[in-house]
Amino acid sequence: MYAEIGKAIKERNKSAIQKCALEQIKAGADALDINCGPASKKPIEDMPWLVEIVQEVTDKPLALDSSKPQVIEAGLKAAKNKLIINSTTADPEKIDILVPLAKQYNTKLIGLTISAKGIPQNKDQRLELAATIVAACSEHGFPIENLYLDPIVLPVNVAQAQMKDILDSINEFKIISEPSPKSIVGLSNVSQGTSVRSLINRTFLVMAAASGLDAAILDPLDKELVDALISAELILNKQIYCDSYLEAYRKK
Amino acid sequence: MYAEIGKAIKERNKSAIQKCALEQIKAGADALDINCGPASKKPIEDMPWLVEIVQEVTDKPLALDSSKPQVIEAGLKAAKNKLIINSTTADPEKIDILVPLAKQYNTKLIGLTISAKGIPQNKDQRLELAATIVAACSEHGFPIENLYLDPIVLPVNVAQAQMKDILDSINEFKIISEPSPKSIVGLSNVSQGTSVRSLINRTFLVMAAASGLDAAILDPLDKELVDALISAELILNKQIYCDSYLEAYRKK
Question: DSSP character for A221?
Fold first, then answer.
């Protein structure tokens, strides 16, 4: 799918991208991630083009996904839908550009608990990086309830001992400040390189939901994953039980 | 299946029951629940007969499952395998018979956080009943690490608001005493009366595992349930990752 989208961007194949966006919405996506892909030679032009053509077919929120602040800014300027900036790290050079932009454009902001020093190795490092991002948001007057902290999900086959720390971080992000920041994960990372990706994805997602996860970047076309998520929300009393709760959720 | 077993008990159809026991073991059961069923007219004779014929085909631990202490005692006398008493409540008339029996026969003991006053309505009531059982075990010199506390899992369609309390109880049982008591659930209750039983069972089980659950009474023939449990244990670092971890677990 990624390779196809990359080709469609390069060839300015609008309908292929719009079709993909509509499929994800039909499957239940609450927001769409907009990413120019690693092969993009001119992301500063690709990002606003993507934003514009996706906005032609939906008014769902868009997550502008780039590691380059200037690419995100190009997307912000082109957008009229609600927005999520995906993402800042805990590094000052990112925070000091992206947090003011998030405030100016009234967007939500994803904050990755990672810095130029590297990937966090345990829960304490995640909470420390989270506190850095929360403090910077407060300084810039950005509303903390619009901040989504990402604990950096690592593949279970390389960082098995950190999975519990990641889950506990999701829980403890809530007590960093009042009002609480929210939490998000990039789900598919947990199963990277494993042989039963969907099973591991949905098992981790159910655990993260029980730990208080607020949002996830995931594949809404994975029916078993979405069934598991809906059932988790049911058990956590986030939607009212009815016999046909799976269908009821999807109709919402 | 229950009706068939009831019939087999009544007709003393040994091979039907032994076949069922072997199927559960093949599917990965660590222990077998021995219950005479609601239709049994003479459980004091049925229980030791069941124990004896199941012991002919396996040396797996047996959980003697009855609400009547004298039926459990009849099973204890007939047994040579390792045993679990299933179960005492928090009522003195149960505790004062079953805890000394559990100590005398060196069995594990399941303690339900329920009493003659009724089903617990929240986490605090569960913890209070759990503390009563733990205190009684201590008084009788029964080793707390052999006690499995059951938070009483209620159906999600009638007690949706209690699900989080049940999960939190599992977590908090651990801090009632040192050494910690263990935890167990009768899983299938969570989905009683719902239309997607297996999905709700496995979603709840994954959450309970993340809350520190030590054991569950469940259907080992439900492959998706067992896959979810194995994956939960993988994520919780309770077994080492390998690409074929599902097969590796089942071969153990």
Answer: T
pLDDT by residue (tens digit) across B55-114?
999 999 999 999 999 999 999 999 999 999 999 999 999 999 999 999 999 999 999 999
List CB contacts of A8: < 8 A, sequence separation 6 or more: A16, A17
Contacts of B231 in chain A (CB under 8 A): 196, 199-200, 203
Side by side, which strands form the sheet with A108-112?
A32-34, A62-65, A83-88, A108-112, A147-150, A182-186, A215-217
Phi, psi of B186 (to 5 degrees): -90, 100
Confirm if B167 and B122 have CB atoms less than 8 A apart: no
User: Scanning every residue of chain A, which has its alpha carbon at the shortest distance from the alpha carbon of B192?
Assistant: A243
The number of distinct structural domains making up chain A is 1
Residue numbers of the domain that contains A207: 2-221
Q: Is residue A197 part of a domain?
A: yes
Tell me the angle at which helices A2-10 and A14-26 cross, rounded to the nearest 10 degrees. 140
Q: In the predicted model, what is the mean pLDDT of chain B?
A: 95
CA B209, CA A150: separation in Å to the nearest integer? Answer: 23
Tens of pLDDT, residue by residue over A3-24, are 789 999 999 999 999 999 999 9
Q: Does a structural domain hold residue B145? A: yes
Peptide bond into A92 cis (omega under 30): no
Contact at 8 Å (CB) between A59 and A81?
yes
Interface of B with A in 149-178 (CB under 8 A): 156-157, 160-161, 163-164, 167
Q: In chain A, what residues touch B167 (CB-CB under 8 Å)?
A: 210
The predicted structure's pLDDT at residue A185: 98
- Which H or E run includes A25? helix A14-26
Classify residue B251: in a domain, yes or no: no
Cα(A96)–Cα(A88) distance, integer angstroms: 9
> Over the Cα atoms of chain B, what is R_g?
18
How deeply is A33 buried, as exposed, middle or buried, from its count of CB atoms within 10 A (0-12, 13-18, 19+)? middle
Distance CA A173, CA A94 (A): 20
Within a 13 Å sphere around the CA of A109, how many CA atoms are in the beta-carbon half?
Answer: 35
Select from A156, A241, A246 the Cβ nearest to the Cβ of B156.
A241
DSSP assignment letter at B66: -
How high is the ipTM of this complex?
Answer: 0.91
Structure tokens at B125: 């009531």
CATH for A68: 3.20.20.20
pTM: 0.93
Q: What is the pLDDT of residue B1?
A: 53
Q: Give the A window 174-213 contacts with B, CB below 8 Å.
A: 190, 194-196, 199-200, 203-204, 206-207, 209-211
